[in-house]
Design goal:
Elements (H helix, E strand, L loop, with lengths): L3 E5 L4 E4 L16 H11 L4 E4 L4 E5 L12 E2 L5 E4 L4 E2 L2 E2 L5 E3 L1 H6 L4 E2 L4 E4 L7 E3 L7 E3 L3 E6 L6 H9 L1 H10 L10 H6 L1 E4 L2 H36 L1 H10 L23 H12 L3 E4 H4 E6 L10 E6 L14 E4 L12 E4 L8 E3 L6 E3 L3 E6 L7 H9 L5 H4 L19 E4 L2 H36 L6 H10 L1
Helix pairs in contact: 1-4, 3-6, 6-12, 10-12
Length: 481
């Protein structure tokens, strides 16, 4: 590594000693300046550096013909849980979208087997996502394109290793070792070659504790969401609605002529919509339209960025695609003529693939919208309804009442008058208040979790750069006493 001389980053021009060239990689991209500088920083960090293969006690993954045929997939909650690439994000395992697989397949194929506290790595397509299988999952099967590793925790903690693998220092290594263009791939051999720093156990614990705390906050957020959903199901008797829909076998029916004045497309009057509307109206004493609760509805506009402008977060419809408000995209703009979002504003995707997705703004950042997202600002007297409206309209049984109002052919979209047709059943005010409280706390837990993950990544980076503040360890020790 001492015999590397970088002449230029763009284009990448460097001189390296022949001893640095690997016999099985002669492609120039493998020796790009950014990769070689990254590797040199790791080696010169002053930390003990080992390959990942030196700390792995177990490693397996389905390769080639091995794996699970899609015909063997089972619904969520049945059989052995099955983790796929889409379940791995933000250093967490998304348990909500896990499906299942038949147990005999898991038992017959050691290559797909994983268990609690293993690290899962995505190695094909979207490479380099990592997560730890949480406690409470004794067995879990892996789909294609994943690798499972179990590490020697006497050498390195799983939490520290996971956050390092999510850092730019390891992500650059994985991009370097990947084969292919459109579909980059890592082999298990490549993964074992990754360079890993081994700091003191105190530093590993300090950084790893942030990852553990982030996971606890995510789990608490999930519990709050489940409580809110159960509360709504109970209040509106949604299980009863589910059975009505299941039992309905009508392919056509009579409709009042007054109804037909609203729209002329027959799908608008499908039996499922009529059943849902009647159920909501019949199970509450009072109903209001969403429009009656709303003070103003507006969208944003295309931005003209300005280097001298104020930095704000720019919310696009994709930022609420998971029914949660992500606030990562920052821009500099002149905000004088832009409408900023307020606390408890409801955001709703109005067109495109994300139509009908929604989130409530509980962020403390300055936010602006794009032109594809509505802001529904409730009247001051009804601000407390934000959480309730959110859980009502995102419910899988009721969300299509919003999409039903969309018009257009090539790309459907919502006009602002959709709010005069969306019925909001009135329930007990204490329950409405509780739902708002649950959603605000859930969002704040997720934001705090994301912040801890970001802090842990920064800790890893300053550690490798030699700027880690060791006094932080003493502060943690004092607090624990």
């Amino acid at each position: 590594m001492d015999k590397i001389y970088v002449n230029s980053m763009k284009p990448s021009i460097l001189y390296i000693d022949e001893s640095t060239i690997e016999s099985d990689r002669v492609d120039s991209h493998f020796y790009h300046s950014k990769y070689m500088i990254n590797e040199k920083k790791l080696i010169k960090s002053g930390l003990k550096i080992v390959t990942l293969g030196e700390v792995i006690s177990k490693m397996n993954s389905p390769i080639g013909w091995q794996g699970i045929p899609s015909a063997s997939y089972l619904p969520k909650g049945i059989g052995i849980p099955l983790i796929r690439v889409q379940n791995v994000s933000d250093l967490m395992l998304d348990k909500d979208t896990l499906i299942g697989v038949q147990e005999y397949i898991y038992q017959e194929q050691p290559a797909i087997q994983a268990e609690a506290e293993d690290i899962i790595i995505t190695r094909v397509g979207t490479i380099g996502r990592v997560c730890i299988i949480p406690q409470g999952i004794d067995k879990i099967a892996m789909g294609q394109n994943l690798t499972r590793i179990k590490v020697d925790t006497d050498i390195i903690s799983s939490e520290f290793l996971t956050i390092f693998m999510a850092s730019e220092y390891c992500q650059l290594q994985m991009r370097r070792y990947a084969y292919g263009g459109v579909q980059p791939s890592l082999t298990n051999k490549n993964i074992k070659q990754l360079l890993i720093p081994i700091p003191t156990s105190e530093i590993q614990k300090y950084i790893g504790d942030k990852v553990r705390r982030a996971e606890e906050l995510r789990e608490e957020a999930k519990r709050l969401k489940e409580e809110a959903e159960d509360t709504l199901d109970r209040e509106l008797k949604l299980n009863e609605l589910h059975m009505k829909l299941k039992d309905s076998k009508k392919k056509y029916g009579w409709r009042d002529i007054e109804l037909l004045k609203q729209r002329i497309d027959s799908d608008y009057y499908a039996d499922k919509f009529i059943i849902k509307e009647e159920h909501l109206k019949n199970h509450t004493r009072e109903n209001m339209f969403l429009n009656d609760l709303t003070e103003v509805i507006f969208t944003g506009k295309k931005l003209i960025e300005n280097e001298n402008g104020e930095e704000v977060c720019y919310i696009q419809s994709g930022d609420i695609s998971s029914n949660f408000l992500d606030v990562n995209n920052k821009v500099k703009v002149n905000t004088d003529k832009l409408r900023l979002l307020e606390q408890k504003d409801i955001l709703l995707a109005k067109d495109g693939e994300t139509i009908g997705k929604l989130a409530v703004n509980y962020s403390d950042k300055k936010l602006i919208l794009n032109e594809h997202t509505y802001c529904l600002r409730l009247k001051q007297t009804h601000k407390i309804y934000s959480g309730y409206i959110y859980y009502l309209l995102r419910n899988e049984l009721l969300n299509d009442l919003i999409k039903r109002e969309a018009t257009g052919s090539a790309q459907k979209g919502l006009n602002q008058d959709f709010t005069i047709k969306i019925v909001i059943p009135m329930i007990d005010q204490k329950i409405i208040s509780r739902l708002d409280e649950l959603e605000e706390l859930r969002c704040k837990n997720i934001y705090q979790s994301k912040q801890l993950i970001q802090q842990a990544k920064q800790d890893v980076e300053v550690l490798i750069e030699g700027n880690f503040d060791m006094s932080k360890l003493n502060d943690t020790t004092t607090e624990s006493r």
